[in-house]
Design brief:
By secondary structure, this protein is an alpha+beta fold. The chain has seven helices and 14 strands. The protein folds into three domains: 54 residues, no CATH class; 158 residues, no CATH class; 80 residues, no CATH class.
Length: 306
């Protein structure tokens, strides 16, 4: 399908929305890109063919109830490495945070209700893995090497790693803040939808079945750390658009020209940013600096796959 966001006057048959599938006839002298989609608010794009009909929001909601495994990631803002005499250090932190509204996940946003993990903690056989790889098991709740507890913040975990070279290497990367994200794999059991904004509904996870928790190199969505966001927005990067672009790519959705452009613009910006540094060690990036570097690596991988 031939498309263009800056169409010359009279050169296209239709003005279409690549996000939701809306289309209308193009009028002579009209620039499609100057008009926003009445369905979802995105700029329209010129095209000689109508887009294929896209799935309705209600159908997409049903597909999120089909029992498929999903993954989510959170910054390990409170991760601790507990040193122990004669043993590999223990990893503790939160794998999920309650009542925190996510970035846009395709067509919706999401939050986890307190109590969502209560039943699965008592019943499920859960592993702690490295990058969700079953070949690298860090702990297991049934064997006592993984603890899972709901507290006021969210799902708190404690991992007693095996005394192996790769596990010690992982602990070192966490201590260096090269790895600072925790992801969990789950299946929704009970969920509710808040449709107060029908164009961007909120999915609330009431109960989930937990499969594994996992420190990860790259999460599905960009880090929403205030420091990272402020640096990028200070460089005139549209952060919500960037977050949506990476999220859509993760789920195999096609990207609009604007979303592709923001990924490439962010990479260009990050090429010249080494991140804030610690005052007492000018050559050592702070936590924000590390996260900027990790985001750059993530975006470069996305760009290679476009």
């Amino acid at each position: 399908m031939e498309i263009n966001t800056k169409d010359p006057e009279g050169s296209w048959k239709y003005c279409i929305c690549r996000d939701c599938g809306y289309s209308k006839d193009h009028k002579a002298g009209e620039r499609c890109g100057d008009t926003k989609c009445p369905e979802c608010g995105e700029p329209l794009t010129g095209s000689d063919t109508k887009p294929k009909e896209k799935k309705s929001i209600e159908l997409k909601k049903q597909q999120l109830s089909n029992g498929a495994m999903e993954r989510r990631a959170f910054p390990l803002t409170e991760i601790l490495i507990e040193e122990r005499d004669g043993k590999i250090p223990k990893i503790t932190g939160h794998a999920a945070v309650f009542e925190k509204l996510s970035e846009v996940l395709g067509f919706y946003r999401e939050k986890i209700r307190a109590g969502a993990f209560k039943k699965t903690i008592a019943e499920a056989d859960v592993r702690a893995l490295w990058n969700h790889d079953p070949n690298y098991v860090l702990g297991r709740n049934k064997s006592g090497t993984l603890s899972l507890v709901e507290d006021d913040v969210g799902l708190k975990i404690g991992i007693d790693p095996p005394d192996t070279t790769w596990a010690r290497d992982l602990v070192t990367t966490i201590q260096r803040k090269d790895v600072d994200q925790m992801s969990f794999a789950f299946m929704p059991v009970i969920q509710e939808w808040n449709d107060s904004d029908p164009e961007k509904p909120i999915r609330e996870l009431i109960e989930v079945k937990l499969y594994d928790v996992s420190p990860v190199t790259f999460p599905a969505y960009p880090d929403t750390d205030v420091g990272v966001r402020s640096v990028l927005e200070g460089a005139k990067i549209d952060f919500p658009l960037l977050s949506r672009a990476v999220g859509k790519h993760t789920y195999g959705m096609s990207l609009s020209p604007e979303e592709i452009a923001v990924i490439r613009s962010t990479i260009d910006v990050l090429q010249g940013i080494h991140g804030p540094v610690q005052e007492d060690h000018p050559k050592v990036p702070t936590e924000t600096g590390y996260r900027l570097q990790n985001l750059k690596k993530r975006l470069e991988l996305v760009e290679k796959m476009l």
